[in-house]
Amino acid sequence: MRKIIMLGEEHVTTEQEASSEVRTKPLRTVKRGPVYQFVLVGLLSLNFGIVFFDRNALNFLMPYVQPDLNLTNTHIGILASALSLTWAIAGLLISAASDKAANRKGFLLVSIVVFSLCSVLSGLATSFLMLLGARLLMGAAEGPINPISQTLVVREVDPRHRGLAMGVMQNFGSNFFGSFVAPVVLVAIAAAWGWRNAFFLAGIPGIVTALLIWKFIDEPPEEPKPEGGPDRLTLKEAFSYKNIVVCSVVSVLLVSYLVITWAFMPLYLTQVKGVDPGVMSWLMGTLGISATIGSFVVAGLSDRIGRKPVLVAIPFLGVILPLGAMFFDGSPWVLAVIFFFGWALNGCFPLFMATVPSETIQSAHVATALALVMATGEVFGGVLSPFFAGVAADLWGLSAPLWIIFGFAIAAGTCATALTETAPIKRAQAQASTTEPTPGL
User: Fold this and answer.
1) Which of 92, 328, 369, 389 has the smallest C-beta neighbourhood within 10 Å, fewest atoms?
2) Considering only CA atoms, which of 11, 364, 373, 300 is closest in space to residue 154?
3) Last residue of one domain, picked from the residues 192, 219, 246
């Protein structure tokens, strides 16, 4: 016999049943009302939006920073990779510490304050090394934000709406503030008062959200650990779950898709297709619109039809983005529509990074599991894939990165076919079908 424990539910199975990773009986019910759940998701989504506001600030301000600090293109690449690396490492270590200490709110508040101060440090930088140090520290502070925040959502939100809540928490604020507000506000400030003041002002919203979270968000009660359960989640234990392995692979593929698109699509559009930079900026902005809407549509759809069919089907839409960019030569408005639907795969990110892992692993170790999937994607996708895509672009041209993301989209959808369904509605239907009496008996 093997005991499989997943968030809020417990099921004792035989070894054969255990391999299916399916849960049944609820262990606890949601104790907070819908108003608190709404406030929780709203504040955490706002906070994660500010995380991406600060994370992306250097990208948007680089035209001002680069000449002032005499940065080379190699320096710029190192700055991006450095933040992704410490984001991944700290995300895993600090999230595990929050699980062990059972104090998610405390770790979250410290992380918010530190990354806000790092924005100020970026504005004070007078050399590449000073800016690198600020970015390394910022990555370390921001890494735990998503897994810890998603753990709070898992603990407090009704499981029937978990997919939607986790999608909004991770995708809505990050895309709205990181893709829309950040470039408009930061560039305007830099043009009027200098890039350093833009960094100084970028640190203020984080302090505000830290105060709001301290005031209105409570530490969720600890759920009882199963008898004989481990005090911490080891890598071996985590990867003994098929769903965690699959989600980690999908994370590598789709994080690679995302960062390669952001890095090379603007260059392809302007240098190969001859698109005006202004038109290019609107086309890239379409991706932010798609991801913002997808935070509701894709995640909410998974609550109704299941996580697996969404994670299998939606990544295949990602092939139309590179194909449209390479082969469509018509109206930019039509190309924007192609970009909008192609980028729908961004709505899958909360599912494989948070929802499915949280529904697979014992409640006490959710933050660790989420951080593990995120770290795997950040290291192999966020750090390594842009480098190899750049090498491919130098060897075979700027179309090479687009063919790479084409392959990654197909591979991600294919890998997702190996998932075991975790959506509460689908598991309830499966359980009901097995308990229905046989006709005639």
Assistant:
1) 328
2) 364
3) 219
